[in-house]
């Protein structure tokens, strides 16, 4: 549409500077009215509904009306300025190329838009030089072949480019996921935990909402590995991760593998009392899961020690992790299979 306005402006300016240009424009003015109406309708449609939301059949009708209005302009100019036949042909050729480039993804729309204009060029030339029909007919056939073949080539390039872009985005998402997800447990990794914790602290400062952290460690996990083997140890970590994700279900809560047999949970909008309930729920769920532990001093099943801490205003992420880790250490010192909360 912008190209059409530009081309129309060029036609008017070019005609104005011809001998008797103003007179020619006044004579041709009625031929411009349908095109101006179509352009006006186009802009009204944009205000009311996105042009992309038009029914495809209505879009084809619009293309035909648009072509017809342009053909009226060119026929009108031909009648009042026979000496500018070459200029009229050149302008139609520009319009054909514009349609071909703009509509190449839709072969039918492109042919509906370009074919009437190509026939119009041929008819104008035949009308002006009826004694030489070979050139306009040859030009018409060549244009049809070029536009049709070019559309196929450009469509194949377009499809390849889109496919490469989609594949690239998939790879980026996959690499990003690999960079943020622990490969064994499929939980968030330490890097993701550090990022989210910083974000949640900023949100808590901004909104004055509570924020709590739970840090946990599987009791006597080294003994588990030494006794049952590393393969069984990996299966134990996966099972514990499943218990955590099944217990902590809110969308913003983040369960992460902190390292080795350590896990950590970020609990936005959760005070110390709420975090303590979640810690107890984890303890009960793990006991119900009854994962055998071959070398524990406190239970035949896998247990966890937990530290719970609530973020305080002005506390950095590092300080919060250290404070939570201190409570985890207290839980271990107190006999394990329990959680300790900051005073």
Detailed description of the structure:
Its EC number is 2.7.7.65. One of its GO terms (cellular component) is plasma membrane. It comes from Shewanella atlantica. The protein folds into two domains: 2-165, no CATH class; 190-341, Reverse transcriptase/Diguanylate cyclase domain (Alpha-Beta Plaits). The longest helix is centred in the middle third of the chain and has 47 residues, at 134-180. It is an alpha+beta fold and 343 residues long. It is elongated, with a radius of gyration of 37 Å. The chain has eleven helices and five strands, in the order αααααααβααββαβαβ. Strands 2-3-1-4-5 form a five-stranded mixed beta sheet, with helices on both faces. A hairpin with a 2-residue loop joins strand 2 (254-259) and strand 3. The mean pLDDT is 82.
What's the structural blueprint in terms of helices and strands?
Layout: H1 2-16, H2 21-48, H3 56-80, H4 85-102, H5 107-128, H6 134-180, H7 190-207, E1 211-218, H8 221-228, H9 230-247, E2 254-259, E3 262-268, H10 272-289, E4 304-310, H11 317-333, E5 339-341
Parallel strand pairs: 4-5
Antiparallel strand pairs: 1-3, 1-4, 2-3
Helix pairs in contact: 1-2, 2-3, 3-5, 4-5, 5-6, 8-9, 9-10
